[in-house]
Design a protein that fits this description.
Layout: H1 4-21, E1 25-33, E2 36-44, E3 47-51, H2 57-68, E4 77-85, E5 88-98
C-alpha cells in the first residue's frame, strides 16, 4: 500500500493529465499560502479554475460503509465551500458532486 503522500501525488498527477486532456491549461500546482493550499490552478479559456484533488475519499468511504454494514445503501459525495463573510459564513453546497470512477 503506497503512503498517503505518494497516493496523493499520484492522484494529483492523474487529475492534471485529465484536465490537460480536457483542454485546460495548468498554471500552478501545490499553491500554498498561510491561509490554505490549492492543489491545481488551471485556465479554461478565460476562466480560472481552482481544483481540489481528493484521491483517497472514495476508498475511505468504502471502508466506512463496510464497517457500518451499509454496503447496500446508496451514498453520495457532496462538496461544501465555506467562506467567511463578515462575522458569519457563506456556505455553498454542491450535492452529488462526483461519483467514484467518473
Amino acid at each position: 500500500m503506497p503512503s498517503t503522500r505518494i497516493l496523493g501525488a499520484a492522484g494529483e498527477a492523474a487529475a492534471e493529465r485529465w484536465l490537460r486532456g480536457a483542454g485546460l491549461t495548468i498554471v500552478a500546482k501545490g499553491f500554498r499560502v498561510r491561509c490554505g493550499e490549492i492543489d491545481l490552478v488551471a485556465r479554461d479559456g478565460g476562466v480560472v479554475v481552482f481544483v481540489e484533488v481528493k484521491t483517497r475519499i472514495a476508498r475511505a468511504a468504502s471502508v466506512f460503509l463496510a464497517r457500518a454494514g451499509w454496503t447496500e445503501h446508496p451514498c453520495r459525495f457532496d462538496v461544501l465551500e465555506v467562506a467567511p463573510i463578515g462575522s458569519g459564513w457563506r456556505v455553498t453546497h454542491l450535492a452529488d458532486a462526483f461519483r467514484p470512477g467518473d
